[in-house]
Write a structure and sequence with these properties.
- This protein is α/β, with parallel strands linked by helices.
- It has 2 domains: about 1-35; about 90-320, Rossmann fold, CATH 3.40.50.880.
- It is about 30% helix and about 20% strand.
- It contains 7 helices and 11 strands.
- The chain has helices spanning about 1-10, 20-35, 45-70, 110-120, 165-180, 200-205, 310-320; strands spanning about 90-95, 125-130, 155, 185, 205-210, 215-220, 235-240, 245, 255-260, 280-290, 290-295.
- Strand 10 and strand 11 form a beta hairpin.
- The chain is elongated and about 100 Å long.
Length: about 350
Amino acid sequence: MMRLRNCRQRFSLPSPVLPLWVDGIQDWTHDRDAMRHNSTNSSDGDRLRQARIALFFLFSLPILTAFMAAQNQPAVDPSLPPPPHEKQVRLKHILVIGQTKGFEHDSISDGMVAIYNLGHDSGLWDATLRTDVELITKKDLGRNAKNLDYFDALVFVSTTGELDLDDSQKKDMMSFIKEDGKGFVGVHAALDTNYKWPEYGEMIGGWFDQHPWFTFNAPIINEDPTFPAVRHFPSAFIKYDEIYQPKEWSRDKVHVLLSMDPSKLNYANNPRVHRTDHDFAVAWDKMYGKGRVFYSTLGHTEEAWSDPDIRKMYFEAIKWALGMTEGSIAPHPRPQLSGDQH
């Protein structure tokens, strides 16, 4: 028993556990001695004793291991202050709206899911996806429903027509951007939305006025390769997409990021071309009061949302709208290209 006492002192086994452990050792010792001196025992008794010994060690080993590990833990000095907590990065919240009151794009689901996944996979934001506009309000909705006070940015994914917003909702949405300094990102048909709401057109930069070439291989130039949302694009490139022609729009009021190369467009017999200046912006950013606003016509097709370039553009655009990155908002003159007569 001296060995058992030393074992107790070394591992400091709690008193409720030690008797069980000691009794088990004693039982095992007794059974071992009995087996040695009683050769007449039956084979059944031998198997019973062996099973008992095996079960004892099977159940006692994890307990002994746990207590030995506990003894190796360093003591905590209660006089020392607790370690500082790691700084928590606040997850941003965005509200993604896909309501349509006019044309319904097949790519709306693709766009909404892509924006959700971009936030989820990066860990930068969570996205609430809605095809109604109930949450565009600052009223307390109850029922654990969020309102604009919860969100940091709004994203309209190919919304169309006059959305179901009453006057108080319109006021709250503009206050959310203009006064609260929250972000707004418009995808494709967000320009084909709310024609009867002048302040919406002022906020986003204009409205849709036809797509003269429908979906085609659009020749695009990068007007600001330093801006986060377009810096991954080359100076000139082609994208198969539907490019909108904006009306009540002026580059003097926005910072154009991407535009179509007017020298590579076919204007012949195309009555849908309404802009005599042939200035067809593809993406721009601007401020609306304190809020950051980004819009791009790219994203018409379902395939566009599998294009790494388009996904990265909107990923960086949302980051910029959330204030995570910086980029110019200053309007600039239209670049002059060879063959451009305007």
